[in-house]
């Protein structure tokens, strides 16, 4: 991975402050009431040099879930540690306004269970209930207390009546749970949650307060970023594994990592999810304190013959680069991985992939490059994924391949200067 200049942050809050959050179990303050919050005053936050960063996120799309007067328990795995946890809920692709009258967050236990004593009710502007219009999202009030790095949290959401089209994330690669009818969000036991699902419902991000030198990295991509064919409920997607590498590094240079991959997504046209160009603002630029985006997308444009020459993808990448730079965000280009033997492969498509990858590597237009292609390809057959990294479908890596992708990222290059 090549970079075009390091980025450094003032150490107003020392490394120990970041490390301290990892010393606690999930400790969201002492038994707040359903509406109690501790708002952060703007002046106080500025004095302490604290930012809000994304510690977990998913790209929202429409799902096939049917939820009527039920509670969905979403299991999310954070990256960087912090305090004053906030949860955002989205109705971006909903068909009707939705009312959530009971939303809870706690430390995940076994299955749908929650660790005893950890479940806390969220509020929205001081109220335990919130109605979200079609196309909108809401951010909860902060929950006082610390959340350590790499926490696994349960976010339970009860919806009033028929939710219509449920906004969320269709292929979460995580087992979540839907309850029997009624509000079961405050229950820490699993008995009411009888229906497993591998989709997320409504939950879009988890945001924490962190020292100012901590920023957000967003991974924008398709099913390979989404973690397709990784082991379900083990957080083996390459962005998860990248987050683990970041957390193991020097504490002053930490990032929260948000995953904006959508399986089947394309750069040039809508399909599964709107195109990467259409969702770039919502899924990347609107995220809290985003400083860097890693873009690894284009294979579906090649597979479905939307990109019939290198310039088709290159022009679209240039648009994303320009939009990121206009907002002061660094953009890292990921090369497209090989897929010979997988569906819709052909030699002409692979030739276009090779030319696009050569441009990504050598043009200098991205702020940095991560060579995912080189990380997972078979040196003896560069148009194929190495057998040890192949999930078996010859398109998606397996767990070992996703680890190789995470290992290919030069962590210093995430801190480029803009």
Describe the structure.
- There is one protein chain.
- By secondary structure, the chain is an alpha+beta fold.
- The protein has 2 domains: 32-40 and 57-204; 214-415, SGNH hydrolase (Rossmann fold, 3-Layer(aba) Sandwich), CATH 3.40.50.
- It is built from 10 helices and 23 strands.
- It has helices at 15-21, 42-48, 223-226, 238-247, 276-285, 299-303, 310-326, 347-362, 372-376, 399-407, and strands spanning 2-3, 50-57, 61-62, 71-77, 82-90, 98-107, 120-121, 130-132, 137-139, 143-147, 152-159, 167-169, 176-178, 195-197, 200-201, 203-211, 215-221, 255-261, 290-296, 330-334, 368-370, 377-378, 381-385.
- Strands 4, 6, 7, 8, 11, 13 and 14 form a 7-stranded antiparallel beta sheet that branches. A 6-stranded mixed beta sheet has the order 1-21-20-19-17-18, sandwiched between helices. Strands 2, 5, 9, 10 and 16 form a 5-stranded antiparallel beta sheet that branches.
- Strand 22 (377-378) and strand 23 (381-385) form a beta hairpin.
- Helix 4 (238-247) packs across helix 10 and helix 7 (310-326) packs parallel to helix 8 (347-362).
- The longest helix is centred in the C-terminal third of the chain and has 17 residues, at 310-326.
């Amino acid at each position: 991975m090549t970079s075009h200049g390091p980025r450094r942050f003032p150490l107003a809050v020392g490394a120990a402050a970041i490390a301290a959050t990892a010393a606690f179990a999930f400790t969201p303050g002492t038994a707040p009431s359903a509406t109690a919050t501790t708002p952060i005053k703007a002046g106080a936050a500025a004095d302490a040099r604290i930012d809000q960063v994304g510690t977990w996120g998913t790209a929202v799309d429409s799902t096939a879930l049917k939820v009527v007067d039920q509670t969905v328990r979403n299991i999310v795995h954070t990256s960087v540690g912090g305090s004053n946890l906030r949860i955002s809920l989205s109705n971006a692709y909903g068909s009707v306004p939705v009312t959530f009258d009971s939303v809870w967050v706690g430390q995940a236990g076994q299955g749908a269970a929650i660790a005893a004593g950890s479940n806390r009710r969220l509020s929205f502007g001081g109220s335990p209930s919130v109605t979200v219009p079609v196309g909108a999202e809401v951010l909860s009030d902060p929950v006082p207390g610390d959340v350590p790095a790499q926490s696994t949290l349960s976010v339970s959401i009860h919806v009033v009546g028929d939710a219509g089209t449920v906004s969320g994330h269709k292929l979460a690669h995580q087992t979540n749970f839907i309850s029997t009818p009624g509000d079961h969000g405050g229950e820490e036991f699993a008995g009411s949650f009888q229906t497993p699902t591998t989709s997320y419902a409504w939950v879009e991000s988890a945001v924490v307060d962190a020292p100012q030198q901590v920023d957000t990295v967003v991974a924008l991509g398709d099913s390979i970023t989404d973690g397709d064919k990784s082991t379900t409920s083990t957080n083996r997607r390459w962005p998860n594994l990248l987050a683990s590498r970041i957390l193991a590094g020097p504490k002053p240079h930490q990032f929260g990592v948000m995953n904006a991959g959508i399986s089947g997504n394309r750069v040039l046209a809508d399909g599964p999810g709107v195109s990467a160009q259409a969702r770039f603002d919502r899924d990347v630029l609107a995220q809290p304190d985003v400083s860097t985006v890693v873009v690894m997308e284009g294979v579906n444009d090649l597979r479905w013959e939307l990109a019939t020459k290198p310039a088709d993808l290159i022009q679209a990448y240039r648009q994303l680069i320009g939009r990121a730079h206009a907002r002061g965000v660094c953009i890292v280009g990921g090369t497209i991985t090989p897929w010979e033997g997988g569906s819709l492969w052909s030699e002409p498509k692979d030739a276009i992939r090779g030319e696009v990858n050569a441009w990504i590597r050598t043009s200098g237009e991205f702020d940095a490059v991560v060579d995912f292609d080189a990380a997972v390809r078979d040196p003896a057959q560069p148009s194929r994924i190495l057998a040890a990294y192949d999930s078996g479908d010859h398109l998606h890596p397996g767990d070992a391949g996703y680890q190789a992708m995470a290992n290919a990222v030069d962590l210093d290059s995430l801190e480029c200067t803009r």
